[in-house]
Amino acid sequence: MNSRVVRYILVAIGWIAVVLGVMGIFLPLLPTTPFLLLASACFMRGSPKLNHWLHQHPQLGPILVNWHQHGAVTSVVKRRGLIMIVLSFTFSIIMVPLWWHKGMLLTGCVVLLYCFNRLPIVDIQPDSVSVAELDENS
Predict the structure, then answer these.
(1) Is 130's pLDDT higher than 70?
(2) Stretch 86-102: mean pLDDT, rounded?
(3) Residue 78 reports pLDDT greater than 50
(4) Where are the transmembrane segments (predicted)?
């Protein structure tokens, strides 16, 4: 396949992931961080310029930097993720009719909660210069 076509496909997938990630900020069922990581990976291979833009973005960039530098999520992301995992699996367990399906879902929920709960939390701190300036002005 032509490398130019592959780059266009990667950029298109990256933009779809960015849109889904931004929607995930406002919609509790869509995760933000995985979509932004996918967008970053696609942009890294398809358009380094877009990847740089994404990492420098004032709202989206800190999420990526936090993951790349620390392999961590913020406490808000973790809390929202845990709530949504429990709610979605509870709904699924209630809806399926067969007991062995319920058991498989419960097992999947426990494994997912265990893995997700192991993610470290690193909250993004405000810029130290601006905090110092606030302290001087107080």
Answers:
(1) no
(2) 93
(3) yes
(4) 7-30, 81-100
Query: Hey, where are the domains in the chain?
Result: 1-71, 73-126
**Which residue type occupies 24?**
G
Mean pLDDT of the chain: 85
- Which among 83, 100, 101 has a CA at the least distance from the CA of 92? 101
75 within 8 A of 63, measured Cβ to Cβ: no
Q: Exposure pattern of 82-92 as b/e (b: 16+ CB <10 Å)?
A: eeebeeebeee
pLDDT at site 73: 85
